[in-house]
Write the structure tokens for this entry.
Amino acid sequence: MEVLGMLAAAIWWFIKALAMIVLLGVALGVALLVLIVAREVAWVIRQGNKEKMGMEEDEE
């Protein structure tokens, strides 16, 4: 019976460790996705500013 309890504890520990690894992977994936989206938004804003500057120069 003692061995069964130790086996159950080892399996529970393994499941918890696996869950932590999965959660860490998801968190890193979300952080990477946010950084990529922020970079793309900054690029779009920069393109808009360049176009606006170009239009202002044409009007002068």
User: Anything to note?
Assistant: The chain has a mean pLDDT of 89. The CA atoms of residues 41 and 59 lie 27 Å apart. DSSP finds one helix and no strands in the chain.
